[in-house]
Design a protein that fits this description.
Distance between the termini of chain A: 77 Å
Shape of chain B: flat
Number of helices of chain B: 5
Order of helices and strands of chain B: HHHHH
Helix content of chain A: 55-70%
Helix content of chain B: over 70%
Number of strands of chain B: 0
Largest sheet of chain A: 7 strands, parallel
Structural class of chain B: mainly alpha
Number of domains of chain A: 3
Distance between the termini of chain B: 65 Å
Oligomer: heterodimer
Chain lengths: 474, 102
Amino acid sequence: MEISLLSICYLIGSVTFIIGLKMLSHPETARKGNLIAAGGMSLAIFGTIFLYKDGGEGLHNYGWIFAALVIGTLVGTVAAKKVKMTAMPEMVSLFNGMGGACAALISVIEFQHYFRVSGIHGDQATVGIAIGTLLTIFAGVIIGSISFAGSIIAWGKLNGSIKDFSFKGQQITNIVLFVGILVVSGYLITNIDFTNLYLFYFVLVAALVYGVLFVLPIGGADMPVVISLLNSFTGVAAACGGFLYNNQVMLTGGILVGAAGTLLTILMCKAMNRSLLNVLIGSFGGNAAGNSQQAVQGNFKEISVSDAAVCMAYAHKVIIVPGYGLAVAQAQHVCHELEKLLTDKGVEVSYAIHPVAGRMPGHMNVLLAEADVNYDKLQEMEQANDQFKNTDVVLVLGANDVVNPAAKNDPASPIYGMPILEVELAKTVIVNKRSMKPGYAGIENALFFQPKTSMLFGDAKAALQKLVAEIKTV
Amino acid sequence: MQTILDWISAHNAIIYIVILMIFLGIEVISRVPSVLHTPLMSGANAIHGVVIIGAIIVMGRAESDNYVALILGFLAVILGTLNVVGGFVVTDRMLEMFKKKK
């Protein structure tokens, strides 16, 4: 009776995941979709706790389970509620890492469990595990560990505490390490006994190291792609657990996310016009950047706040291009204020959103929505590119690589071929940046040296506040 | 060869699920607008938190004198809960800001 009830819980859970994911891909239904999936998840979790039977016996250790659930729920809710909008991408990465670690731990415990049971029964020569089980345990520990270590590195990179790092021969080291993991696992799966058990822990450590080395050389601009990829890895790791326990809801949820995550990763790469392989090998900033840089030299001119204010207040049409600089400075509210002020003065204002502006696709939309910016004011890249030539002033707020003309006309540039916002078509371009430092791709931007471009240096929030104050007096 | 064939026929249902889910996963999100990429990634992140069920099973089956399993299992349930709860709450917060304000 309980078992059939539990399978119904799992069935409902699986269906809600599919419906939830479907609804998440449409703006009107997205929020409801998330809640439906959360409801299905709760049903599956509580179903497991109360109805799961293992050889006719229910689960025990309820005290531990509930304590862990309460701790996880409290910490998770507080962390998710407290995190700033700008820090959400790294938060997602961190949560993804937790899932990967969970999958890896399950494999470790199962492995340890089989080894212990075989030991107790005095069967010292061989460990009593079927090959299929061993295979899923190894897959779980390898994929889970890579996902965990990689996500933590991605998290550190996004919040700035870990810098890009690569050494000579890193590609080779990675390949050797990965092949090593596969060979040792393959050997263990077919020949495991009590003399070589310790090699399992070698695989665990090697997978963690691989996860670190895999993400470390990849540039910060590519982190969204990496997080999305690691997200689908964790999905597959969860599915391994599904195999292990013959558990349909883990299997459906895991594979669903694995497949959807992989597609999402490819869609993100497409938005940057790069292949996944190109992102992963991490050629960014390394060899290619050297030869393209000498092309960009010259003088840039600065503009004062009052000049910028006059320039914008008397324009007919202004397009704002937000980027990561706006996000870190938390300048979305004052940006909206500027937009309202200009609109009141009869200026036509809109926003041009590059698909990968900020740190994640859709990052800018989320931020501007938080500041109550009207949906209709946001223009997608193609739309905006048609309009730049009729635009008087483009205000670039902390965006760099997504407006770099090198992507169009410098085949040697590492970002060549990436679709960009063609802001240089407008009559005047005002660029707000903290300094002349290159953006995340680590390359110079010829736009800043063009005669029609003026630089307005400073933190986006401070600069916009001054600009707003100045425009009020115009 | 025989073992592989046996394995496939023994796990027929699971193999069907895997194949169908791969197609479904791709189909379901193939027409997502780029605005929703971040929330979708976050939502998918929460869904793979289903791995917590494995952690609960492991924890609930551990013998009460197997301290390694108890401690690691406890940790696994905490991490899994963080993934699920944190994932859904963050996604909800993101989507909350998309609602139409007139």
